[in-house]
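Quick entry between incubations.
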Amino acid sequence: MPEIPRHSAIAMGIILGLLVIATCVRLLLAKKHPGKDFTELRQRIQSWWWMVGSLFVVLSASTGTAIVFFGLLSFLALKEFLSIVPTRHADRRVIFWAYLSIPFQFYWVYLEWYGMFIIFIPVYLFLFLPLRMVLIGETSGFIRAIATLHWMTMLAVFCISHIAYLVTLPVKNQDAGAIGLVLFLLFMTQFNDVCQFIWGKSFGRHKIIPKVSPNKTWEGFLGGGVTIVLCSGILAPLLTPLSWQYGLLAGALIGASGFVGDVVVSSVKRDLQIKDSSQLIPGHGGLLDRMDSLLYTSPLFFHFVYFLCY
Amino acid sequence: MQISRIPKILFFAVCVRPLVLIALGLNIVNRKGLPTSGPAVIAANHNSHLDAIVLISLFPLSMIHRVRPAAAADYFLANPWRAWFSKNIMGIIPLDRTGGTDLDVLFESCREALDRGEVLILFPEGSRGDPEKMGRVRKGIVHLLKDREHIDVIPIVMHGLGRALPRGEALFVPFNCDVVIGDALRVSGTAAEFTQKLKLSFHKLLNCCLTRNPEDSEK
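Done. Structure below.
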């Protein structure tokens, strides 16, 4: 096992510490209110242990392992999307090709072939899928079917593969190593969800988009955003090659785009009249319910860093 | 442990479980509605060859040799390879559905299985039919349970497997699937009344499916 750079190791330690605290609080709560049902909270925290645990194991194992892991996440996310949206029966073989793009896309990541990585989905796959669909010959509902498939592969394959590419970027912050960027992005995105929720719950008055997500308020969005900007200004120089000034900007980017990712996936679910996208993660719902903000933050954060530092 | 159980347990532990977990992914509703011991009858809708495999995989490995799908003899025993797989791995109870056989003779082996305390998987629609469409619910199940009305009939609706591997297709495409387990029913009244009850139950369970779209329900 390669050595984990100091800052990344500390960051992992702090996250595990937070989980220990969450577990202790849960146990105390259960002791204090013996009659109350804490099943959902217990499942939620247990699932966090699994998610964080598996992530840390693959990140510290090797670059290749991490890429395979994110490829698997990409597959599960795409499968979840394609399972809940309407698909035409005739398109099974087209969908099969969409799945096949995953090993290719993550192989480009492994090769660090940036040029191919960045155009493979939006150029080659997006042009190829309609061709495959035409060969089947079902024209009724063609536009909708191909648009759905493009959008799903964009979110589930293209966006998620950016997290994997972060791992392969040359190390510019020796104290954080290659995994520092991934830890920073994942932690900030999830922390942003938590902050927006807490700020919204405590001070929320003015709704942003009541039709899509009645719990989203300006107070939550702005309060969470400011918290993330400040945290990011402190953490970015430690975990990423960014200076503290650019760290503040990265925080703003993650705060805003995380919010967008969240409401976009909410709209998809609302359109389909479902609450969770699957039951993959006990206490959380599906993978998409957990990764919704990440779908937007990862490509945007990646290109922010790539533009400034590479 | 009997040697004859080992192929089935190995197949489900090594091949089916991981595949169901990763390549399929199940959204299971009301898992505790599954019978923990026999005799019991599971009445499920039928869209795919995967149906029986997925249903068996829901049970603990210690119990799967007692979970037996009833399956068409003319199809599943058609060649020696398929027959070996059907009998030793799936543990099917062959049904001769050519029509000539007397109903009591037809269900003889199913009744024996129930009397041994096994869980019988039945597909009351008969064959797999069109993907993701509910076919006609047949009355055979009432005949089967004629003198065994104390046995629970557990309705289970699956959705999505007909997309993953529909009839007449060899290419498997991964999709999440719903498995909705209903409350146990008992056979009572006339055959028509019971099939109606079963049909209503199926339709109610279909509405719990995540992978079913609002448009599907209008069809």
